[in-house]
Amino acid sequence: VQLQASGGGLVQPGGSLRLSCALSGFSSDDVAVAWFRQAPGKSREGLCVIASPVNGATAYYEESVKGRFTISRDSAKNTVFLQMTSLLPEDTAVYYCASGWARSAAILTLTAPLDEYTHWGQGTQVTVSS
Fold it and tell me: Over 80: is that where the pLDDT of 62 sits?
């Protein structure tokens, strides 16, 4: 069972980037998948989460990214995406994806403690700078 995050890089302020979280060893349809980020010296921050298809594949966003970031999933590719637009220097961080129990209300509202997420990707660096 593995999650692999990719797609990070250097982008100018106002630019866009799409991150991918590829799941292997289990179906992405069976879990909720969330995106987090961690900037230097700061704690890991939950950004958004997408429910499993059986739960409507609904998405939940924190206010800090609502309207700029979009989470989506492609069941055929067993992958969850994070489309980021209007990027700001303060979006600079290592971005992680994580999976959790599909029926957890806490996970679906990003209020669960980090250790409730069963699997984590390795992280991908996003740097927003001119």
Answer: yes
Closest Cα to residue 46, out of 32, 36, 33?
A: 36
Please determine, for residue 60, whether its predicted confidence score (pLDDT) is greater than 80: yes
Contact between residue 98 and residue 119 where contact means Cβ atoms under 8 Å apart: yes
Contact assessment for residue 35 and residue 19, using Cβ atoms and an 8 Å cutoff: yes
How many Å apart are CA 87 and CA 46, to the nearest integer?
A: 17
Number of other residues whose CB lies within 10 A of the CB of residue 50: 26
Q: Is the dihedral of CA 74, 7, 97, 68 positive or negative?
A: negative
Q: Which helix (H) or strand (E) holds 106?
A: helix 105-108
